[in-house]
Amino acid sequence: MSHDAIHETTGFLVSLVVHTVLVLVLAWWAVRAPTLGDLTLVVDTRPSPTVAPEDMTVAMRVSPWSADADQVAVERVWAPPATIDLPADAVVFGPTSSPWVPTGEASTSAELLRGGAPVRGGFEGRRGDRKAERLARGGGTPASESAVALALAWLAAHQESSGGWRFDLSEAPCRNQCRNGGTVGSTTGATGLALLPFLGAGQTHRDGDYRDVVHAGLYYLKEHAVPTPHGADLQEGTMYAQGIATIALCEAYGMTQDDSLRSSAQRAIDFICWAQHSAGGWRYYPGQPGDTTVFGWQMMALKSATMAGLDVPSPVVNLGERFLDSVQSGDGSYYGYLTPGRTPGTTAVGLLVRMYTGWRRNDSRLSRGVEFLSREGPSKSDMYYNYYATQVLHHFDGPTWPAWNDQMRDYLVRTQATAGHERGSWFFQDQHGLKGGRLYTTAMCAMILEVYYRHMPLYETVAVEDDL
Ligand SMILES: [Zn+2]
């Protein structure tokens, strides 16, 4: 073989290797193509479907119920005719029968969150006779239930063919007929948040009017969970989405005990536990020192996991309480964002988590915090604050609950979009609403109106429950 021939052969071999590698890379790329969304979203570092740190420095608001009552309400203008059918008459109550986790079992596992404390708060109120009873007892109305039903119909109509949702509504079947898309990029966060109101109303992939919707959404989350040595990464951007998507998986598993969801939910919880900062908090990225809003979603995920019978290491919960200690003021009646403070939104998060981790109802720190929120009243635009504060006041069930509930419930019923394609949705222009858009706002408002039955009471005695 001549020198040239050897040279040519070498060149051929190099070329062969290069092209083979190229073909393999392209083949891999083609195989990966359906999940390309993962790749772009993994590097999406835009934070927060809810609150950015700079937003949380906002001082305490003045009462949102003064003077310009209608100014912030959803602006109603002409909208194109709806192309997706929404129910003319809303369903007042959801499914009336279901295989359910026995009360005793759920409350026993709930107590694991803080050994022996009177922690309840399970999912058993979401369906059947108990749902009707909880609704009536808490102050829900046929109008509030109709609003929930319309919200679910709107959410279902904006699910993508992939089974997921997006905050910017860009892939929703309505094709820009709805205004106010959000800017947050995480589809796992959007999908988790959109699923929660269905689950809250007792609609699962096995039961109810939205089985296919819920099934497709859960499947989307399972498909988009990135396996890691530390558990299932559902962030697509930040830990906000991890917390929210994990709550949806845990609730769905807890409500159905469907074995096919168990490992997905457990691995998502494992990731949250791994991502906790050594001082007990969570923030945008795993291992960062915490902020109260990201912390709140993770703690609620751990709580949902406990209700569902999944494994939550108690040191993680105990360390979470230490984080709350680090941002509390007034001996624990008020909470800040990164440091001790007293803003309404973070105070509502802190108090709700305190309730779940075992503070008793007669704890004076709790009653002072509840009094603070009651004086503050519901916000006309901040549904993040309303979501947590409404849960705190409902669980506390004190003399201020009826007044809060009347304002909150009627305001949401009054401001829900009633015409055109936006019918059934909400949008309020605050810092969270702008980021999460109409999808976020609608999910939060629906869950506020589900407060009566979404979680069983934390403070009722067993004897009272048995009498019902
Ligand atoms: Zn739309």
Care to give the gist of this entry?
The chain is mostly helical. The chain has helices spanning 3-32, 36-42, 103-110, 128-138, 142-157, 187-200, 211-224, 239-256, 259-275, 292-308, 314-327, 344-356, 364-376, 383-396, 401-415, 431-449, 451-454, 462-467, and strands spanning 226-228, 231-233, 328-329, 334-335. The strands form two sheets. A two-stranded antiparallel ribbon has the order 1-2.
Overall average pLDDT: 80
Distance between the termini: 96 Å
Global outline? globular
Sheet with most strands: 2 strands, antiparallel
H/E order of the elements?
HHHHHHHEEHHHHEEHHHHHHH
**How much helix is in the residues?**
40-55%
Number of domains: 1
Question: Architecture in CATH?
Answer: Alpha/alpha barrel
Q: Which ligands, by name, code or SMILES, are bound?
A: zinc ion
Could you say which structural class the secondary elements and strand pairing correspond to?
mainly alpha
Order of neighbouring strands in the sheet with most strands: 1-2
Number of strands: 4
Share of β-strand residues: under 5%
Low-confidence spans? 28-119, 462-468
Gyration radius, to the nearest Å? Answer: 24 Å
CATH topology: Glycosyltransferase
Please explain how this structure is put together:
The protein has 468 residues and is an all-alpha fold. Helix content is 53%, strand content 2%. It has a single domain, classed as Alpha/alpha barrel (Glycosyltransferase), CATH 1.50.10.20. It has a two-stranded antiparallel sheet with strand order 1-2. Helix 8 runs antiparallel to helix 9 (259-275). The chain is globular, with a radius of gyration of 24 Å. Zinc ion binds at residues 158, 172, 174, 177-178, 421.
